[in-house]
From TrEMBL:
Its main location: cytoplasm. GO terms for molecular function: 4 iron, 4 sulfur cluster binding; metal ion binding; phosphorelay sensor kinase activity; protein dimerization activity. Member of the two-component regulatory system NreB/NreC involved in the control of dissimilatory nitrate/nitrite reduction in response to oxygen. NreB functions as a direct oxygen sensor histidine kinase which is autophosphorylated, in the absence of oxygen, probably at the conserved histidine residue, and transfers its phosphate group probably to a conserved aspartate residue of NreC. NreB/NreC activates the expression of the nitrate (narGHJI) and nitrite (nir) reductase operons, as well as the putative nitrate transporter gene narT. This is Oxygen sensor histidine kinase NreB. One of its GO terms (cellular component) is cytoplasm. Residues 314-332 have a biased composition (Basic and acidic residues). Keywords: 4Fe-4S, Cytoplasm, Iron, Iron-sulfur, Kinase, Membrane, Metal-binding, Transferase, Transmembrane, Transmembrane helix, Two-component regulatory system. The chain crosses the membrane at residues 12-30, 36-53, 65-90, 102-122, 134-155. InterPro entries: HATPase_C_sf (IPR036890), HATPase_dom (IPR003594), His_kinase_dom (IPR005467), Sensor_HK_TwoCompSys (IPR050482), Sig_transdc_His_kin-like_C (IPR004358), Sig_transdc_His_kin_sub3_dim/P (IPR011712), Sig_transdc_His_kinase_ChrS (IPR017205).
Length: 389
């Protein structure tokens, strides 16, 4: 997943590299129209391709198939430019950036290897004049592939180590937080209550019980503050729209199920509690689709306006009958693990069962919202959340 702070750099750099190469080509080949015109046409094709497939917020931009097509065409255009003018090997900087940032490991290695081969062709352009230099050309290309794939592997390991380190740091912070606040508060309450039991008169007993009550209230306030501070990691550096896109992109890349994310309105004014509830609901709904729905396509919509916000996750999977209480209760009674082995949507009614839907409903109601489940056998399922302004 790309760090949101680098998103602008990753968006702008390919255009800057392409612009500099176009300027260089114009300066070197001005007048040699037979070479310059095809070069400019290919450069225009690269710019349009990047604009349409990666820069514009198109609904298909983050689908795995679209990313694969984008990279194949991008590498092919880069190779065509290199075959015309070897200095377009510098354009592989942009192609490498796309390979490292939008393709999940280990599929990333395919794009990196192909891009490295294009860079190797550019670097060995002076050897192509003599057929006897074939081994040298292959050596240059292979060296590029080994180095860049090694870099890809190193970045993957570094990312995993950073993730583990961040997790360990957060656990240590939470342990300190609990020890310094809740644990000490509970210890104080126990001490005061024990003192109250041993008090010699009513006034002293009252003083100790009042102190215990005050500590309990302080501990409750501290617990609420700590829970509210536990924002999902997906919301650490971005607001809800980008967090939903990131979650959807990662989910689609993992499951291979295309997901269409549509977001409208300004979500900047949403409260933290609302953002967390909507993000967690979307994650739970997508988890249900992945495990049970058998869907071929999913749509995630977020609309924010003056009346509030509305989130919908809709799939085209097998669906179920929300009114079929008999089947649901029989299935739940037949096995203590029924919920884990069945579709939460088929084993639970939004009002009566199924921890997944129950948890979603409770989370949404905590921010004064409402949750509705719509489904029909063979017609998919929609989870709809509405939170008033």
């Amino acid at each position: 997943m790309v760090d949101p702070r680098w998103r602008t750099v990753l968006t702008v750099t390919p255009y800057i590299a392409l612009g500099m190469l176009i300027a260089f080509s114009l300066g070197v080949e001005w007048g040699a129209w037979s070479r310059l015109v095809p070069t400019l046409v290919l450069c225009a094709a690269v710019a349009v391709w990047m604009l349409v497939m990666r820069t514009l917020p198109t609904p298909w931009r983050d689908r795995p198939a679209s990313i694969a097509v984008f990279m194949v065409v991008m590498i092919a255009l880069n190779l065509a430019l290199v075959l015309l003018d070897s200095w377009f090997g510098f354009l592989t900087v942009a192609t490498f950036m796309f390979s490292y940032s939008i393709i999940q490991w280990p599929w990333q290695l395919l794009a990196v290897s192909a891009t490295a081969a294009v860079a190797g062709v550019a670097q060995s352009s002076s050897l192509w004049e003599h057929p006897g230099n074939l081994l040298g050309i292959l050596a240059v290309i292979l060296l590029n592939i080994v180095i860049m794939c090694g870099l890809s592997w190193g970045l993957e390991l570094a990312g995993r180590q950073m993730s583990l380190a961040a997790t360990s740091t957060e656990r240590a912070r939470l342990a300190r937080e609990i020890h310094d606040t809740l644990a000490q508060g509970f210890a104080g309450i126990v001490t005061q209550l024990q003192a109250a039991e041993q008090a010699s008169d009513e006034s002293e007993r009252t003083r100790h019980t009042d102190a215990a009550l005050a500590l309990a209230r302080d501990g409750l306030a501290e617990a609420r503050r700590s829970v509210q501070a536990l924002r999902p990691a997906a919301l650490d550096a971005v607001r809800l729209p980008d967090a939903l896109r990131n979650v959807a992109r990662a989910w689609s890349a993992r499951t291979g199920i295309p997901i269409d994310v549509r977001i409208s309105g300004d979500a900047g004014a949403l409260r933290t509690e609302t953002e967390v509830a909507l993000l967690r609901t979307a994650q739970e709904a997508l988890a249900n689709v992945e495990k049970h729905a058998g869907a071929r396509h999913v749509t995630l919509r977020l609309r924010v306006d003056a009346r509030g916000c509305r989130l919908e996750v809709r799939d085209d999977g097998r669906g179920f009958d929300p009114a079929d209480e008999t089947t649901r209760h029989e299935h739940t009674a037949s096995s203590p693990h029924a919920e884990a082995s069945s579709h939460p949507e088929t084993s639970s009614h939004p009002e009566t069962g199924g921890y997944g839907l129950t948890a979603m409903r409770e989370r949404v109601e905590a921010v004064a919202g409402s949750l509705v489940v719509e489904s029909h056998p063979g017609a998919g399922t929609a989870i709809r959340v509405e939170v008033p302004a």
